[in-house]
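hey so i finally got around to running both of the ones u sent me last week. sorry it took forever, my laptop kept dying halfway thru and i had to restart like 3 times lol. anyway pasting them below in the order u listed, first the sequence line then the structure token line for each. didnt double check formatting much so if smth looks off just lmk and ill redo it

first one:
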Amino acid sequence: MIKRGEQWGVPTTCTSRDVFVHGDQGLALSSVNDRLIVHGGDIAHCLGDPPQPAVGDNCFEVPIDALRVSITMRNGTIHTKIAASHVMIGGWLRGRLVCVSNGGFIGPRNVSPRAHPNDGFLDLMSVDSSMGLQQRFRARQKSVLGTHTPHPLVEAGRIRAIEFSTLSRTEALRIDGSRIRGWISVQIEIVPDYWRLLV
């Protein structure tokens, strides 16, 4: 994990054994035994969308945290998976919105501007279900720049693990952008230093 005042990562050279992956879902499915070069997605975006190093290029190897997500389904089964970027419950325009993120970005929105993908914490941003529609539109617009959090109905914090239960059969659950249907509860915990990325 990154520590205050210390350099993040170590200098290295890209080799032919390093593995290119596309986006957060590709990263989530990748082996922890490989050094990875990620193109596209939220994690690449929170790293500044760095250019992909070619074989022989000097670069940095940086550790990246992961999210371990356990989903309990209506039929009683439990699915556990690794996620790279986020878990999102609900939506911006009505009901509750909960965003648990690794690097702060979900698509174009900087939902947790103080997040870092290797600080050993999950970043939580939630919008209370009582927020009115006009305020929701404004908060969603401001979230592109990460200026939506100073609002009494927007909560922000850092956690290592958290659990949520669905409030309705139609409440959306998305993991790294993929919709999960038929869920009743979800547990999320941070897994520090899970992958090694080249940037």
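and the second one:
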Amino acid sequence: MIIWHNTVDASRIPEYVTAGQEVELWIGTYPIEGGQSVWLEITLYTQDGRELFCKMPAQWNSNSESRNNSYWVMNLGAFESGDRIEYRVYGSHEDELVSCNDTFGFDVG
């Protein structure tokens, strides 16, 4: 299983986040296989100094048969100005655990 995010076909929407805007993350996996799962480990750093951590599952959205890819989506919700969000994308299939090489993040303006 190969997993990716922050590409043309698996992006964060919107790219630049402002306060109160809903944030949606798209994740791609290859190949199409039953029994896959995708989740994120997310840390929220608030402007007042709090640090909140959670794990959240992504939801399967669709397959691209021509590319043999699956696409997953997660709605992170909305944040406040000054928040910083960092996250890492993980996936699994049977006994195989994979992750994106990068930790992703954004600041809310």
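quick thing i noticed on the 2nd:
Residues 43 and 74 are 15 Å apart (CA to CA).
anyway thats it, ttyl
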